[in-house]
Amino acid sequence: MKSANVQLRKKVMHQKFPPKKLKKWNWLISGCLVLALCLSLVGCGGNEKEQEATTQSAEDTVAIHAGEINVYLDEAKYYAYVAQGTYETYYLTEGKEIDWDKKTKNGVTMEAMVKSTVLDDICRRECMYNCQKEYNVALSAEEQEQMEIELDNYYKETDGELLSKIGISRERLKKVFEKQTIAEKIENVMAFADENLPDETYKKWKTENTVTAEPQWESITFDKPIFTMEDLY
Fold first, then answer.
1. Across-strand partners of 43?
2. In this structure, are residues 186 and 131 in contact, taking their beta carbons and an 8 Å threshold?
3. DSSP string covering 153-177, please?
4. Which of 46, 50, 75, 187 is the most exposed place for a label (fewest CB within 10 A)?
């Protein structure tokens, strides 16, 4: 998977796209090309929850229950729409636009497949991040400085329409970046001890936890493209 991601980055970076329109999110691209449906979702919610969500901000609205962990709507939208943009960018490098309604070999639409991959990615991060105390992992001063640079770049270089679509505050996005960086460090420590340990740890987590998608997660759709052929010119 890492090799595929590196090749994708190199291929995209060699295309002459407008930098504001086709911003590459290197801190998130890993995992976006995993073509597998890894979780069975148990839907829940109802009219009462939908009405409640309308009175709450995205950072206060739960979109996913990953076991006992709440993943909020602004974070879920960030990961989902970044994945959408990444896939659309990749297809543009191949000279075509992605059809999100097209069925995959698994019999689901491209949109459903990518959202399932994103959901699995989110749950794996939560699983690894939950091991923070056990592995005594924290961010170094250098990593914190780099994170501030990435935050600055995100708000400076990401297209305004996409910023509005994701709608995440800098404070909340910083927490997302922190969580991802710590989760990656924990996974690297695990892999150093035993290359199979990260996968085994996550597999065990999935058997012990139920993942529930709220209607807010289901309402995230890729109906409106982020990038199209028009962005190439």
1. 213
2. yes
3. HHHHHS-HHHHHHH---HHHHHHHH
4. 46
In contact, 29 and 114? CB cutoff 8 Å: no
Angle between helices 73-93 and 110-129 (to 10 degrees): 130
> How far is CA 4 from each of CA 8, 90, 109, 138, 201, rounded to the nearest angstrom?
6, 12, 22, 29, 24
The two structure tokens encoding residue 21: 């329109």
What does the pLDDT read at residue 232? 74
β-bridge partners, 213: 43, 64
pTM for the model stands at 0.75
Kindly report the number of other CB atoms within 10 A of residue 115's CB atom. 26
Residue written as token pair 């602004």: 74
| DSSP-based three-state secondary structure for 213 | strand
74 within 8 A of 168, measured Cβ to Cβ: yes
Calculate helix-pair angle for 197-208, 170-193, nearest 10 degrees.
120
Q: Are 45 and 130 in contact (CB under 8 A)?
A: no
Side-chain-side CA neighbours of 30 within 13 Å: the count stands at 10
**Torsion-angle region of residue 149: left (phi > 0), alpha (psi -120 to 50) or beta?**
alpha
Asked if 213 and 41 touch (Cβ cutoff 8 Å), the reply is yes
Alpha helical stretches, state H, the chain: 2-13, 47-54, 73-93, 110-129, 132-135, 141-157, 160-166, 170-193, 197-208, 215-218
pLDDT in tens, 63-113: 999 999 999 999 999 999 999 999 999 999 999 999 999 999 999 999 999
Please state, in angstroms and rounded to a whole number, the distance separating the CA atoms of residues 85 and 91.
10
Q: Are 229 and 97 in contact (CB under 8 A)?
A: yes
Q: What is the token pair recorded at 211? A: 């993942």
